[in-house]
């Protein structure tokens, strides 16, 4: 395990705990959905997502707990600008979603987040972002039937 700075280790642990809490909320909300009497009721997918979310959250919290005793203090400046940039990217996603559709808005959010967090190759990030957004759109909109905003181009 690489030695991280103390701030990153704390943030990783906090994010893991927040993911775990979100998983609990998701399970509680999923259990309140009405039972349809079929094997695959409406609560199945949210519970699966919650289990995966909890597993990742626990993994991040454990990793942070292991790294924190060896973490170094880092006095970098400018970290808050990345947080502001990420919040701005999320707000832009919400504003652009009904205008340009899910695929383009999600691609923009993915690219902005990756670049703000230090991704090295911009064109690769763009390709991954578009592929991920397109795959999510196809699975949810076309296969499952949950409509996502398609925008003026139909995707």
UniProtKB/TrEMBL annotation:
UniProt key word Transmembrane helix: yes
Record-annotated membrane-spanning stretches: 12-31, 43-62, 83-116, 122-140
DUF1468 domain mapped to chain residues: 16-149
Domain of life the protein comes from: Bacteria
Keywords: Membrane, Transmembrane, Transmembrane helix
Name the record gives this protein: Putative tricarboxylic transport membrane protein
Provenance organism: Saccharopolyspora dendranthemae
């Amino acid at each position: 395990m690489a030695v991280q700075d103390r701030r990153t280790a704390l943030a990783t642990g906090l994010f893991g705990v927040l993911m775990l809490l979100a998983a609990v909320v998701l399970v509680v909300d999923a259990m309140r959905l009405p039972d349809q009497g079929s094997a695959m009721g409406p609560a199945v997918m949210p519970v699966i997502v919650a289990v995966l979310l909890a597993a990742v959250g626990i993994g991040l919290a454990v990793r942070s707990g292991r790294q924190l005793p060896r973490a170094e203090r880092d006095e970098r400046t400018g970290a808050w600008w990345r947080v502001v940039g990420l919040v701005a990217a999320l707000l832009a996603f919400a504003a652009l979603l009904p205008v340009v559709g899910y695929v383009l808005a999600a691609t923009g959010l993915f690219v902005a987040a990756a670049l703000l967090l230090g991704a090295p190759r911009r064109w690769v990030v763009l390709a991954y972002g578009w592929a991920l957004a397109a795959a999510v759109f196809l699975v949810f909109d076309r296969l499952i039937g949950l409509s996502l905003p398609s925008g003026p181009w139909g995707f």
